[in-house]
């Protein structure tokens, strides 16, 4: 379905097609309050970063990944900026041998194309050809190796304001003391709480937030030098070095491995 909004009754029953797909774009930020539904959900963004809240935290997920949520799992979603993406809703009986915990999956070109085709089907019963595509989508969820969520968000509302500001403008060069003043706490407290709530020190978290945005920009075919400059790195070589240390490949090699657009 081209409309991103589905009747809640459709995703709270296993009646109908084994997979129901919604896809589309919005020129404004997309968000949903916390909720759960009977169908499992695989969601992906073709443009932009997603914040996904689950019962044990909130996470930043880049566009090249998809998020799997088993049936009845609490979640809330927010895009950072305009949104273009899709969701696959899987009937609960078909989720029995799919991942039983929320996880992220690297989006393959095969999965993306199958999902976008299924988005044109509507809610009619599946014929034999469409059933094969639906089973392909389930296989991609079933066999893709789970990956850690991209980046945890802190729980403290003051730290969340800092984190979201950095996500929205990764090139912001304010130092630790300036961010601490913005959060109305000491730099030592900010550092300690950031580490306790995210598992990353503040500097490491900010660096990883920039790299999450870099993944999106590389997927959009932005030149490596432009990515480095737009994200506030001192030089392209500094960006390449940090990127390779984090992801085990240079930005150019990483981009070559992405699914074709």
Automatic annotation (TrEMBL):
Record keywords, A-Z: DNA-binding, Transcription, Transcription regulation
Keyword Acetylation: no
SUPFAM superfamilies: Homeodomain-like, RmlC-like cupins
Superkingdom of origin: Bacteria
Keyword DNA-binding: yes
Cited InterPro entries: Homeodomain-like_sf, HTH_AraC, HTH_AraC-typ_CS, RmlC_Cupin_sf, Tscrpt_reg_AraC-type_HTH
Positions of the HTH araC/xylS-type domain: 160-257
The protein, known as: Helix-turn-helix transcriptional regulator
